[in-house]
Amino acid sequence: MTGCRFPRAVHLVSLSDMNTLSGKHILLGVTGGIAAYKSAELIRQLRAEGATVRVVMTAGAQQFITPLTLQALSGNPVHTDLLDRSAEAAMGHIALARWADAVLVAPATADFMARLEQGRADDLLCAVTLACEAPVALAPAMNRAMWDNPATQKNVQALQARGMHRFGPALGEQACGEVGPGRMLEPDELVTALASLFETGILSGYRVLVTAGPTREAIDPVRYISNHSSGRMGFAVARAASEAGAEVLLVSGPVSLETPPHVLRINVVSAQDMQDAVLARIGGCDIFIAVAAVADYRPEAVAAQKLKKDAQQVTLTLTRNPDILATVTALANAPFSVGFAAETEQLEMHAQAKRVAKSLDMIAANRVGDGVGFDAEENALQVFWDGGSQLLAQTGKMKLARQLVALVAQRFHGKHKKVIRFNAKDSA
Ligand SMILES: Cc1cc2nc3c(=O)[nH]c(=O)nc-3n(C[C@H](O)[C@H](O)[C@H](O)COP(=O)(O)O)c2cc1C
């Protein structure tokens, strides 16, 4: 009897219902307004949507709600002081700014926005916001006359002109008893607005197929050859493509990761399974991003029964696995194809050779080994294409994936335009 117990291709197809902020690092700034009490519920809802939340409170905010409450709800220490030696050693203002995928200041007082407009950095929240390159959103909350005051309006407009997002305020009854504009948006409205910041739409209307993770090549019913790929980079790319508006199909080797929101996932085991799954679905895809660390070789013969340890030495004969990327780029209607090259040495030379040999539109090369790349939280990529390259500096894999997808979208749209122009001229 042959291997009915072999790890087989499991073509499970699942559409994730994961939450809209899964995996996002949200830095919540709380300032000294009466609506600060709503921050507690806001933190709860942000976490319920999958975000990791760190809180920075101004001195004013601490008069309205205690750091202990927000610490308990966020599950992380609350940051309050700029000039605090112990805080600077752990999560200082620059580290917090880099950590954040987005900053949300809710409530944002008139005073805070005035300080921000001036570019001040004499309290922790102002300093972090000034140092942050991630999106910043302000949820103003104040008395309607304070909101309507030309000084506040001028500050808010200036901050928006610098690229900051404004959520609200809403019209309604206020804590001071007046009715008018100035109420902070409700926590659920803020969570929805925040989630929309991650949806760029640059790949709206396009289909993207991503491969991720390692493959496993069976030796016998219980043993296999594999590699250290965790799948995190591929999953991050799938999530970033989905955030960019694409319809994303993720073909994944065996990993223990949750499927990103709105991504259709197909689980496979071996390189052959992965190739079969990719080829069955690549038609109609606009972009193929091959992040999986596919085994180059597999055992030529798979033992039907578990190998016994009688022999002093065992020799495994390996045979070449299919080259999924090269197979896809050789298709008549090949999609825009992006490969990954994990190299331990001579990164550029090997990556460029692979790009040319496999007719790739782009290749993202990363150094692996010594704790870098595989199975690590952070990564750096050098991306090459015909006639250009760009370094994406070391950062968290999610941030890196968003940068990579933005670059892929840019090159993809560029190529697309050229083809359209060529066709138009051709038929003229
Ligand atoms: C009871 C009370 C309620 C306040 N509510 C608000 C408010 O809703 N919005 C606002 O902009 N300022 C409000 N303020 C004024 C701010 O607390 C004050 O401008 C403070 O300097 C803000 O500091 P911060 O922005 O550093 O937290 C309030 C003050 C008090 C005493």
Number of H/I helices = 14
Shape field: elongated
Proportion of strand residues = 15-25%
CATH class of the largest domain: Alpha Beta
Q: Give the overall average pLDDT.
A: 89
Lateral arrangement of strands in the main beta sheet: 1-13-12-9-14-17-18-19-20
Q: Enumerate the spans where pLDDT stays under 50 for 5 or more consecutive residues.
A: 1-18, 420-428
Cofactors and ligands: flavin mononucleotide
Termini Cα gap: 65 Å
Biggest β-sheet: count, sense, barrel? Answer: 9 strands, mixed
CATH-assigned homologous superfamily of the largest domain: CoaB-like
Helix content: 25-40%
CATH topology-level fold name of the largest domain: Rossmann fold
Overview of this protein structure:
The chain is an alpha/beta fold and 428 residues long. It folds into 2 domains: 25-197, Rossmann fold, CATH 3.40.50; 207-427, CoaB-like (Rossmann fold, 3-Layer(aba) Sandwich), CATH 3.40.50.10300. Helix content is 35%, strand content 23%. The protein is built from 14 helices and 20 strands. It has helices at residues 38-48, 67-74, 85-91, 93-99, 110-117, 124-131, 144-148, 150-161, 187-197, 232-243, 271-281, 324-329, 347-357, 397-427, and strands at 13-15, 25-30, 52-57, 102-108, 136-140, 165-166, 170-173, 179-183, 207-212, 217-218, 224-225, 247-252, 263-267, 287-290, 297-299, 318-320, 336-343, 362-367, 378-385, 388-396. It has a 9-stranded mixed β-sheet with strand order 1-13-12-9-14-17-18-19-20, sandwiched between helices. Strands 3-2-4-5-6 form a 5-stranded parallel β-sheet, with helices on both faces. Strands 7-8 form a two-stranded antiparallel ribbon. The chain starts with 12 loop residues before the first strand and ends with a helix. Mean pLDDT is 89; it is low at 1-18 and 420-428. The structure holds flavin mononucleotide (FMN). The site of flavin mononucleotide has 15 residues, from helix 5.
